[in-house]
Every structure is written in C-alpha cells, then in structure tokens.
Amino acid sequence: MAVGRPLDLEGGALAIDVLIAEDEPSILESLDFILRRAGWSVQSVSDGEAALHGVRTLEPRVLVLDVMLPRRSGFDVLKVLRNDPETRDLPILILTAKGQQQDRQTAEDLGANAFVTKPYANADVVGAVRQLLTDHAGTS
Amino acid sequence: MLSADVVIATGVAYVGVLFVIAYLGDRQTRNNAGSFLRSPAIYTLSISVYCTSWTFYGAVGNAARNGLEFLTIYLGPTIVFVGWWFLLRKLVYVSRSQAITSIADLLSSRFGKSSRLAVLVTLIAVIGITPYIALQLKAITSSIQAVAASGEGARGSLAGVDDGALALGVAAGMALFTIFFGTRNVDANEQHHGVVAAIAFEAVVKLAALLAVGIFVTFGLGGGFEAIYQKAAAAGVEVHAQGNFGPRWIAMIILSAAAIVCLPRQFQITVVESAGPDHLRTAGWAFPAYLLLMSVFTMPIALYGMSTMPPGSNPDMFVLTLPLSAGQSALALLAFIGGFSSATSMIIVASIALSIMVSNHIIMPIILRSSGPGTRNGQGLTRLLLMSRRLSIMLILSLGFLYFRLTGETDALAPIGLISFAGVAQFLPPMLAGLYWRDATLKGVAAGILVGFAVWAWTMLLPSFETVSSTVARIMANGPWGIRFLRPEHMFGLNDLDPLVHSVFWSLLLNSAFLVIGSLFTTQSPLERIQATLFVDIFRRREPLRRSFVQGGATANDLYFVAERVLGANRATSLFEAAAREQGGDAAGLELTSDLIGRLERELAGSIGAASAHVMVSKVVAGADVSLEEMMQMAGETQQVIEYSQELEKTSEALRLTALKLEAANAQLRELDSQKDEFLSQVSHEVRTPMTSIRSFSEILSDPGSLDERQRQHFASTIHQESLRLTKLLDEILDLGTLERGERPWQSAPIDAEAVLDRALAVCDVLFRQKQMKLEFGERARPTVVEGDADRLSQVFINLLSNAVKYNDAAEPVLRISSFTRAGSYVVDIADNGPGIAKADRALIFEKFARGRQGLAGQGGAGLGLAISRQIVTAMGGTLDLVPGPLRGACFRLRLPVVRRVS
C-alpha cells in the first residue's frame, strides 16, 4: 500500500501495477484478490499470447507469469520480453507448479527477477511483488 | 693235416683280407665314382650274398634228403631276376627316387611315411632273420667241428670247447667284424661300397671253392657224372623218392622268389646298393647264371657222399668232409673258406641291413621325438647314429646266437633257412600292393603283415622249438588248450599238408586277405595317397610330384643345421651351395623353397629313413612350415576354426542381437524412467494446481477481517471444489495405473452397448442444454451385445461427450452421434464442430496429461480422461481412435467386438 501507485494521468494510458498471466481460474482469483488487497492495481490474462499483448498495452510495473500457459508457455513469453528493449527491464515474477530446480534455473537464465512455487503462501507472493516494485521504483 | 686251429686262424686271416678289400673299396669309390667297383659285374656278384652257407653246405644236404627240391631255392630268384623288368626295375626306380634305405623304409614310405609300420616291419624282420643268422652260426660251428673231428689232434685248442661256446665265439667275432665293417661311417644313401666290394670278393671265393670241391669230387673221386649216378644207384641211394614236383615245390619257389627281394640283406644289396636300374639288365642273366654254377655240382656231391661216406654222416657237411676224408687238406681249407665266406657275407650284410632298420626306425625316432632340434651338434648325432647301429648289430647277433642255443642241434640247415624265408615272405604282399595297387592302405597292409606274421610265428617259428620245449610239443600235438583246429601245423583242420606248405599257405593267404579287405574298407591319408601315386605311377610321372610346403618363418640356416647334423658339414654345405647356385644367389641369402625342403628331406631320408627324415624336417620347419600331411591336418583344423568362428559369429550375432535388445530395453527403460519422471512431474503439477487454490484461499479465509460473507462463501466453495478435483485426480491416476498394468477392475459381462450409449447421452443432457448444444443423430445401431462393463463403457461415452461440449467454442455448437455394426464390430462415432485436434496433437491426444494446446484455458481436468477411456476400451477388446469426422471438429470412433445382436 505504501508503494501503491496512483493512475498515471500523464501517460494517458491506463497503466497498472501488476499483470497476472495465469490459466487456472481459481488460482487467478486468489492472486487477484491478495494483490488487490495489498493495494495494487491488477489486471489478468489467461494465456501466453494475451500476456505479451497485455504487457504492451497495459504497461504493468510487474508481471506475475505462470509457466504452464496455453498457447505460449511462460518461459516463451519471458524470452520474448527479455529480447525486446522496451520490456527488457520489466520486473517479472515466475510462478510454477512443478517447482523443480530445473525450472528455477531456466527462469533465472531467461532473466526472471523472482520465482515462487505453487502452492504458495500468499505473503510470499505479495512480498516478492513488493520487492520487485521497490527495486525498480527508480527506473520507471 | 688240417686242424681246428688252422681253420680258425685262416678264418681270422680271411676276415682281415676282407677288411682290407672293404677299406680299399671305400677309398676307391670315394675318389672315382665310375670305378670298376660300381660295375654291373660287382653288383651281380654282390647279389650272390643270397647264397649263404645254407646254399654252400645245406644245398648238398637238402639234395641228399629231398632230391631235386634244393633247386627250388634257386628257381625263385631266377624267375625274379630273369623277369627283372617287371618287379625289380620298378623296385629300384622307386627306391632310388625316394632314397629308400631298407624294406621297412620302403613300406613305411609307401604307406604315408608311417613310423609305426616301419617299426612293425623292422621287428618282424629282426625276428624273421634270427633263425637265419643262427643258421650261419651253426654252419660255421659245424664246419669247424667237422674239421676238428676229422682226425686225432685236429681239435687243437678247441679241445673241451663245445658247440655253444664255439658259436658264441663266432657270433662275437662276427659282431665285431660287422661293426668294424659296416658302421665306420654313415653314408647319405646307406651305400657301402667297401662292403659291396668285399661281398663280391666273397662271391668269387665261395663259387670258386664250391666249383673246386665239385670238380674234385665229380671228376677226381667219382669219375664223372655218369659214374657217380651209377654208383649211387648201385649203392641203393634213392634221393628222388621224396623230391617230386608238388605243393612243396610251389611253396618253396614262392618263398625263394619272395626272399630275393624281401630279405633285408637282399633288399640292401639289390635295391639300396644298386648303382641304378641299368645294372639290373646284366644281373638279370648273370645272377641266374651264378646260381646255376653254384648248383651244378650239388647233386653229384650229394650222391657221391651218400654212396661213399659212412652211414650217419651229416650230408650238410659233405662239401667239407669229402675233401677231408680224401686227405685233400688244401681243398678242405678252401671249402671251409668258401663256407665261411658264405656265412660271413650273409651275417655282415644282414646285420648291416637290420641295424640300419633298427636304428632308423626304432632308435632314431625315439631320440628325435624326445629331443628338440638343436640340442645336439652334427658330430654328436652321427656318433649317436653309429652307436645305435653298433648296438643293433650286437643285438641281432645275440638273438641269432640265442636261437641257435635254444633250438639245439636238431635240424638240418635247410629248414632253418626256410623259416626265415617264410617270415620275410610276409613282406611280399605289402610290397607288391605298394608297387602296383594304388588303393592299398596303411591299415590294410599293417593288418595283413601282423596277421601273416602271427600265423607264421605260430605255424613255423613255434614248431622249431618242438624238440626243446615240452610245452611247444604239447601244443603241436593237441593244439593250445586242446583246441585241435589251432594246432600249429594243422591249422583249421588242414591235415594233409607239409608243414612248410601249410604255413606258407595260411600266412600268405590271410596276409593278403587282410591286406585287400582292410584296404577296401579303410581310407588313405593324404600323404599315403601322394606316396601311393609316387610309387605306383613311377614310370608314368617323370617329374617328381612336388611336395607342398607352405613357406613359414624357418630360415635356410635352420635347415642347414639339421642337414649338417645328419649329412655332415661337407655334404650339407655342397647341397646348400648347389641350391644357392640354382637360385642365382649366395648361400647366405638362400631362399627356402619347397623344392629345397623336399630335396633336403629326400637326402636326409637316405641316411635316417623317410619317416624319421620327415619327422625331423617337419620338426625343424614346423611351427612355421608344414608338410602336406600337416597341411591337411591344418586344413581340418582350419575347417574346425572356420566352423568355430562361424559358431562364434553366430554367437556374436546372437550377442549383438541381445545387445540390441538390451539396448532397446534399456532405451525403453530410460524412456519409461523419463516417462515416470514426466508422469510424476505431471502429477505434481496436477496436484499442485488445486492445492494452490486450496492453500491460498484457506490463508485468505483465515484472515476474515477483510472479507464479506459472499466472498467467504465463494472462497469456501472454491476450496471444496478444488479438493473434490484433487480427489478425482488421484482416483483417476490410480484407475489409470490399474488399467495400464493390464488389470481389469471389473467383471466382464454381455451388455447392450446401444442402451449404455443412450444412458450416457441422458446423463450429459444437462451439459448439452447449458451449452445449448445441438444434438444430431446419424444412423443408429439396433441393440447390440458386447462384452464389458456397463458403467465403464458409460464412463467412456460421458468422457467423449463432455469433452465435445467442454472444448467446443463454436457459436452454434453441434454434436453428431451415430452408431452401427460393421464386420463384427459395434462402432460409435462422436463428432463435433469444435476447434478439432491440431495435427501435432493427434498422436498425443490419448497420452496421459495431454490436453490440446489449442484447448481453451481453465477447462479443469488433468488430461487423463482420454487416456483412461482408451485403456478401458482396449481392456474390452476394442479400439478408440480419432478419425476424420463429418463435421469440422474432432470425431472420436469407438469400436467394440460384437458378441451377438439382440433380436
């Protein structure tokens, strides 16, 4: 809440704090609830293509990205975003239900900023998002 | 007055003369190859070694006892020599081309260079000749005794010396003499030119002596042939009564014909010492002429002796006793020297021939086999060879003496000689077969010789002990163990034959029979076959058959060493230098051709016999170089190796297949392992998904402050649904596990598939209505019975129907269902107008946890439904596939075997 950012009136666009890319409806619902409750503005998409599109149109300050997404996997999305100068520095939190070391490694190699395993503690997700917002506050 | 001392001294002096002749003869031939000593005349004279003291003294005795029968002993050789072109020529040709050293060598060489056959022949020859040697000892002893008995004081220093001691002395003297004579050196071809010269000299001496006695008796004493015959007739001497031509004559002609080639000493002189087949042309008429001269006065002497000598006189000694009684000391001494000459020549040549056989075929092979090449130097080997020959000579003379002692003074000279003749006659069938019958085999010949020898030993040798052994006498009378048809002189009930005829008949018959039958029923070794061709076809093949040697690692040096050991340094060097000249190089760089090896083996064979030479050369060159025999053996082994390696190949092929299978199994295992990992990972994911919601919402609910009642209700219901989903997931995983293991967690029963489909459609009716799905029905089957479980089949239908609903994003969703029976199958098609299955996913759609990638998000379900459905259908004996459908979406086709149709 302390770091909560009001609507960016100057940019004209409806900039948001967090974009969630998650295909499981109930998980999406829980994420949406806890992040909103933490005071951020939240939007969500449920597949990889929509995530890329959402990043460009909604310009979120943080992307919460599930690995297992229809159409385009989370890693795929991550790779595209990191190769794009515009989104190269976007803070990204990777969510995975597999939770194996290899996934974490892949995520780090591809340039993810944070990594949370399902099932998660709500506080971990909120903490990670807050950390990313704080760390990148100056750069935006 | 002639005394024993004088004759003994004369004998010793005579031997000294012989020795000088032999020595000079050796020297002369060494310096001059084409000397007089190598002439046909000398050759012919040396062949007269055939005429031993048996002929010299015994022929008269024989004539006195059996009339003209004594002539048979000359008739056989005469036939052979007159017909020299038939047998002797071939024999000499073959023996020279093969460097044959003895009759044992001949037979061994012909039958595959068999050392065993050589040993057998050698042993038989030694045993067979023993009586003959005894005969010579007896003749010399008797002649000295005859002189000693001729008058008072004639005994001289022989007073108190009996026959046995005298014979022992004679034997020892002979042994010594022969050793000096015959074993001074080892010659390449076992030719003893000095000895031949001495023998030729002796031939002249004995002929001259006999003729002198004959002329003296016939013309000096008897007054001519006519007078002697008349006088004999007047005295009532009738010698022709027993001497009629009959079986005994035939047997003796056969025996003497055999003896002239089979007796070791005759073989030695006629074949081994032969300067070449050309000499045979002369010998062909000259030797029979010599025999005629030897026999011309036999009858007159016998008749005159019988009519004038006191009754009881030994007719065997008439040649000596007639001049003695006439007071002709000088003539008697000449007669004695003639007889002595006959005996010594026989003993010398026979023991040289036998000693060569014994040392070459028995002693040397043993030494060669027990010592490796290179353990002895050349000098040592030569000395060894000479030593073994000297030992053999002593052994042979000892045996002769022993036989002389054992048989006592029972018999006349002639029968003893005949025993030997019959013994060596056993070599005649194998020799003839070897020269003329290409298919004669080693086994057949060996069997024939063995049997012939055994029969001879039983029917002739054994009976000669009759008078000195009561056991032998008993066997003679009653047969062994009372078996009468095995009586030595009446075998198989043949009673009416003369013992000699009887023995010759049985031994040669069985010998030949075994030879022929054995040869027909056994096969030749490769080497035997080659030798057979070399022997039988000697005149057909001018070029000697090349022995195949495979060049190996042996060097010319190795072989030179062997050659030096046996042939001596000079001969070996000249041999190798000649070979080097032929090759156009120097001896150092001599190439070891098979030609050279073959020549060397022949040269060695000339010294130590074919079998030993073969062993020796093979042994040196072996390991690297191989003779044909070994080649064949190797070929056999190679065949075995090939078979073995083929087996190995098969085995390794099997191994390879096994390895492939293992590899495949391993890959499968790894695949399964990674599938298991993948599966666990999938399960983990599928479990974590509902768990995530459950955890997250329960955390939210545990902080109730910020929630309103509606939210709380909603979150609690989500938790509930997710836990149900979790349970269902676990159920499905277990179910799939069961099905995949091939188990069927249901009892199969005949069910109406059509009714089950209708029930599933009814269950899904709610879903259809929610989605406003339009149902179309195609053809519908009549009630059809399949084998299975109604609930499980229903589960499959519901899964397919709900999938069709769940993934259909069409604006106007349509579901088309049709069912029919075709070719014994009940078929249901469930098609929709949804997005269909992407090509890439079609192969995966029935895999566990597979969900169409194009599938919409948030459809729940772990992707196990289709996998489980297919497993169920498979367990019921049917199939579940994706087929091209009538609508644009997917079309699933279920097929089950029809049990029967419900009417």
TrEMBL record, chain B:
<feature type="transmembrane region" description="Helical">
    <location>
        <begin position="195"/>
        <end position="221"/>
    </location>
</feature>
<comment type="similarity">
    <text>Belongs to the sodium:solute symporter (SSF) (TC 2.A.21) family.</text>
</comment>
<feature type="transmembrane region" description="Helical">
    <location>
        <begin position="318"/>
        <end position="340"/>
    </location>
</feature>
<dbReference type="Pfam" id="PF00512">
    <property type="entry name" value="HisKA"/>
</dbReference>
<feature type="transmembrane region" description="Helical">
    <location>
        <begin position="346"/>
        <end position="368"/>
    </location>
</feature>
<feature type="transmembrane region" description="Helical">
    <location>
        <begin position="285"/>
        <end position="306"/>
    </location>
</feature>
<dbReference type="InterPro" id="IPR005467">
    <property type="entry name" value="His_kinase_dom"/>
</dbReference>
<keyword id="KW-0472">Membrane</keyword>
<keyword id="KW-1133">Transmembrane helix</keyword>
<keyword id="KW-0902">Two-component regulatory system</keyword>
<feature type="transmembrane region" description="Helical">
    <location>
        <begin position="36"/>
        <end position="59"/>
    </location>
</feature>
<keyword id="KW-0808">Transferase</keyword>
<dbReference type="GO" id="GO:0016020">
    <property type="term" value="C:membrane"/>
</dbReference>
<feature type="transmembrane region" description="Helical">
    <location>
        <begin position="500"/>
        <end position="521"/>
    </location>
</feature>
<feature type="transmembrane region" description="Helical">
    <location>
        <begin position="6"/>
        <end position="24"/>
    </location>
</feature>
<dbReference type="InterPro" id="IPR036097">
    <property type="entry name" value="HisK_dim/P_sf"/>
</dbReference>
<keyword id="KW-0812">Transmembrane</keyword>
<feature type="transmembrane region" description="Helical">
    <location>
        <begin position="444"/>
        <end position="461"/>
    </location>
</feature>
<dbReference type="GO" id="GO:0022857">
    <property type="term" value="F:transmembrane transporter activity"/>
</dbReference>
<feature type="transmembrane region" description="Helical">
    <location>
        <begin position="117"/>
        <end position="135"/>
    </location>
</feature>
<dbReference type="InterPro" id="IPR050736">
    <property type="entry name" value="Sensor_HK_Regulatory"/>
</dbReference>
<protein>
    <recommendedName>
        <fullName>histidine kinase</fullName>
        <ecNumber>2.7.13.3</ecNumber>
    </recommendedName>
</protein>
<dbReference type="InterPro" id="IPR001734">
    <property type="entry name" value="Na/solute_symporter"/>
</dbReference>
<feature type="transmembrane region" description="Helical">
    <location>
        <begin position="71"/>
        <end position="88"/>
    </location>
</feature>
<dbReference type="Pfam" id="PF02518">
    <property type="entry name" value="HATPase_c"/>
</dbReference>
<dbReference type="InterPro" id="IPR004358">
    <property type="entry name" value="Sig_transdc_His_kin-like_C"/>
</dbReference>
<dbReference type="GO" id="GO:0000155">
    <property type="term" value="F:phosphorelay sensor kinase activity"/>
</dbReference>
<feature type="transmembrane region" description="Helical">
    <location>
        <begin position="412"/>
        <end position="437"/>
    </location>
</feature>
<dbReference type="InterPro" id="IPR038377">
    <property type="entry name" value="Na/Glc_symporter_sf"/>
</dbReference>
<dbReference type="InterPro" id="IPR036890">
    <property type="entry name" value="HATPase_C_sf"/>
</dbReference>
<feature type="domain" description="Histidine kinase">
    <location>
        <begin position="682"/>
        <end position="900"/>
    </location>
</feature>
<keyword id="KW-0175">Coiled coil</keyword>
<feature type="transmembrane region" description="Helical">
    <location>
        <begin position="165"/>
        <end position="183"/>
    </location>
</feature>
<feature type="coiled-coil region">
    <location>
        <begin position="655"/>
        <end position="682"/>
    </location>
</feature>
<keyword id="KW-0418">Kinase</keyword>
<dbReference type="InterPro" id="IPR003661">
    <property type="entry name" value="HisK_dim/P_dom"/>
</dbReference>
<dbReference type="InterPro" id="IPR003594">
    <property type="entry name" value="HATPase_dom"/>
</dbReference>
<feature type="transmembrane region" description="Helical">
    <location>
        <begin position="389"/>
        <end position="406"/>
    </location>
</feature>
<keyword id="KW-0597">Phosphoprotein</keyword>
